[in-house]
Write a structure and sequence with these properties.
This protein is 51% helix and 14% strand. By secondary structure, the protein is of the alpha/beta class. The chain has two domains: 142 residues, Rossmann fold (3-Layer(aba) Sandwich); 62 residues, Winged helix-like DNA-binding domain superfamily/Winged helix DNA-binding domain (Arc Repressor Mutant, subunit A, Orthogonal Bundle), CATH 1.10.10.10. The strands form two sheets. The chain has a six-stranded parallel β-sheet with strand order 2-1-3-6-7-8, with helices on both faces. Helix 4 links the parallel strand 6 and strand 7. 42% of the residues are buried.
Length: 223
């Protein structure tokens, strides 16, 4: 390559970012231009560094200054913000969330690749090279999910939720209160309550404890 691929790493765990650095700088043609641990810091660094590729975990907090405000929704929001600022942004998701609806939602949001953390040791470098050139790269198991027939995708209960409902589902599962969620999403508590009512109806459940149980089964929360 004539020029190094400039990469922004976005993950809220410093040890994970360090691991990605080691995987990438061991190969030629990659330069790490910044590290972010939240949606807000990712957006700030994207504006200042204008990287060629963003490596992004979905499970990041909205704001690194507030440990309580953390949700798997942070990554999806970061994708939206970055692509709103730069529709040509090349984003590669690297996530432990390896079942729908997350790969499907990320693909719909405009990412060019999705690598599972389990496959990062082998897939990360080729994925970065591919995405940097404007191509797509998905881990084998993820490609099957992204390319699945719409009918099969609809079998997944969480796929019934809108993007906002999925974000609220994730934040409720992680223990956030209505006022916290409203503050994160810049909406009123009344709007959050309305979304919560809709997602409960769609999922056929009745309480926050059932949301938590479903999130655990989907791998959104770790047991």
């Amino acid at each position: 390559m004539s020029q190094a691929i400039r990469v922004l790493l976005v993950d809220d765990h410093s040890i994970v970012r360090f691991g990605y650095q080691q995987l990438l700088i061991a190969r030629s043609g990659v330069e790490i231009v910044g590290e972010a641990d939240s949606c807000a810091s990712a957006m700030m660094l994207y504006r200042s560094q204008e990287p060629d590729v963003v490596i992004l975990d979905l499970a990041i907090p909205m704001d690194s200054d507030s440990e309580e405000v953390q949700s798997t929704a942070g990554g999806l929001e970061a994708i939206r913000r970055i692509r709103s600022y730069d529709p040509q942004a090349r984003i590669l998701v690297v996530s432990g969330l390896d079942s729908n609806p997350y790969p499907q939602r990320a693909s719909q949001a405009g990412v060019l690749g999705y690598v599972t953390k389990k496959a990062a040791s082998t897939d990360l470098y080729p994925a970065v090279v591919r995405v940097a050139s404007g191509g797509e790269y998905y881990s084998k198991s993820i490609a099957q999910l992204v390319d699945c027939e719409e009918e099969a995708y609809e079998d997944n209960q969480l796929s019934q939720l809108t993007g906002r409902e999925l974000e609220i589902f994730s934040m409720i599962a992680e223990g956030h209160k209505v006022n916290q969620i409203a503050s994160i999403m810049h909406v009123s508590p009344k709007t959050v309550h309305a979304h919560r009512a809709n997602l409960l109806r769609k999922l056929g459940i009745n309480s926050n404890s059932e949301i938590i149980q479903m999130a655990m089964r989907a791998g959104i929360l770790q047991t």
